[in-house]
Amino acid sequence: MDMLFRLMAVVVLCYVIIAAAVYFFQDRLLYFPTRELEVTPAALGLAFEEVYFQAEDGIQLHGWYIPAPQARATVLFCHGNAGNISHRLDSIRIFHGLGLNVFIFDYRGYGTSSGRPGEKGIALDAGAAWQWLTQVKRADPARLIIFGRSLGAAVAAELACSRAAAAVILESAFTSYPDFGAELYPWLPVRLIAEYRYATIEHVTALRIPILVVHSPDDELVPFRHGRAIFEACAQPKYFLEISGGHNEGFLLSGDQYVRGLDSFISSALP
After folding, report:
1. Do 170 and 157 form a contact (C-beta atoms < 8 A)?
2. Which of 50, 153, 229, 233 would be a feasible disulfide site paired with 148, CB 3.0-4.6 Å?
3. Three-state SS for 62?
């Protein structure tokens, strides 16, 4: 009995240590930034502008503005949790090909942006990107579309709640960080120890602008049911685009289906 008690105590202690480690180091489980910019839009033959701007708390941020000839609208691009803007050239090419200006920026701690990532700070970064587009570039909010993929979808949804955008596109989104974490680590009390919320599903309920939710049943990281739940929580007008392929490459593998879906939505959402 004494041996069993000791064994149980060791198991409980190990569990507590693991849970504590997840709590104190959860930012390392969520954010995977890289600093080096491997390539620029020039590799696609696209002219672009290096942009440096400040968040409200003074953090210096970096982004690229890629203009399109006779653009019909502008996309504010909120990327996912890994890499930096230099890893999103395929998406830049697609949006540019649809006749859209693109402004993509790195969150704090990503690429050449200063600081360290965190939920509140990244929200400030997205707000600063919006401010730069509307004040420096004089982008018309009625022709400004907020796009977010994966973690960036949560950032985009929150930003759209406080800005008068034309529309929002949420791709490969999770309902919330605690929901996502609880599925990844079902044996841990993730909902109790999660420091971050990134509650996409809560933000979309407040939106009254056209919303496109994009998700793949083949997504191996964020289950398809997350996308469907977000879509169900949205008010009209709302649209769902089902694509194929995994979390990171689904938009590429879906090819024309993806591009036509974006094009159709954007055309319907613009004045």
Report:
1. yes
2. 153
3. strand
CATH code of residue 146: 3.40.50.1820
The H-or-E segment that residue 105 falls in is strand 100-106
What is the per-residue pLDDT for 183? 80
Please state whether the peptide bond connecting residue 237 to the residue before it is cis, i.e. omega within 30 degrees of 0: yes
Give the pairing of strands 49-54 and 82-83.
Answer: unpaired
- CA angle 206/84/188 to nearest 5° reads 65
pTM: 0.92
Q: What is the rounded average pLDDT of the residues 79-93?
A: 97
| Coil vs helix vs strand at 229 | helix
- Tell how far CA 166 is from the center of its chain: 18
Residues belonging to the chain: 271
Sheet strands (E) in 123-194? 144-149, 167-171
Question: With 70 as the cut, is the pLDDT of residue 12 above it?
Answer: no
Please check whether residues 130 and 49 belong to one and the same domain. Answer: yes
Q: Is residue 223 a part of any domain in this protein?
A: yes
With a cut of 90, say whether residue 6 has pLDDT above it. Answer: no
